[in-house]
Design brief:
Helix content: 25-40%
Largest sheet: 5 strands, mixed
Strand order of the largest sheet: 5-4-3-8-9
Number of domains: 1
CATH architecture: 3-Layer(aba) Sandwich
CATH superfamily: Glutaredoxin
Order of helices and strands: EEEHHEHEHEEEEH
Number of strands: 9
CATH class: Alpha Beta
Shape: globular
Number of helices: 5
Distance between the termini: 32 Å
CATH topology: Glutaredoxin
């Protein structure tokens, strides 16, 4: 189980433009916000992605990059990004390898059949690659504001 104060699990995933993003490339340079969301284009996921995109410049001023991760593929991410005018990078974890590393997959039984679903969760990683905040079962509404406050506190700012 992941814990605050431990190193963030490393990974490499493709973004909506099919470019590979490697978490370790930000170590020593940027804080990273990883938000895991269930599915492109659904109402809650759209609220969350738009809110993070709207605040992306505020995060950038705090040396922080934002990545949304779901099990959708890069084509779905590209369509979602273009349809909603999103600026945050969306990463495709179609095999759920990173989702499992971050323990955001929940097993449920629906209609008598076992299913896996992604639990909406956010991880704030500092420039050293250490997990500083783990937020699970988050509500999409006002979530970007909550994360922004935590990143400001991480950077020693209260405004």
């Amino acid at each position: 189980m992941l814990q605050v104060g431990h190193p963030a699990p490393s990974f490499t995933l493709p973004d909506a433009s099919m470019e590979m993003m490697q978490l370790s490339s930000f170590r020593g340079k940027k804080n990273v916000v990883l938000y895991f969301y269930p599915r492109d284009g659904t109402p809650g996921c759209t609220i969350q992605a738009v809110d993070f995109s709207d605040r992306e410049q505020e995060f950038a001023r705090l040396d922080t990059v934002i990545f949304g991760i779901s099990r959708d593929d890069v084509l779905s991410h590209a369509a979602f990004r273009d349809e909603q005018g999103l600026s945050v990078q969306l990463l495709a974890d179609t095999d759920a390898i990173v989702c499992r590393k971050y323990d955001v997959i929940e097993k449920k039984v629906i209609d008598g059949r076992p299913r896996e679903s992604l639990t909406r969760s956010t991880f704030i990683i500092d420039k050293k690659g250490i997990l500083r905040h783990i937020l699970r079962d988050v509500s999409p509404k006002d979530h970007a504001d909550e994360v922004l406050k935590k990143v400001k506190a991480l950077n020693g700012r209260a405004d």
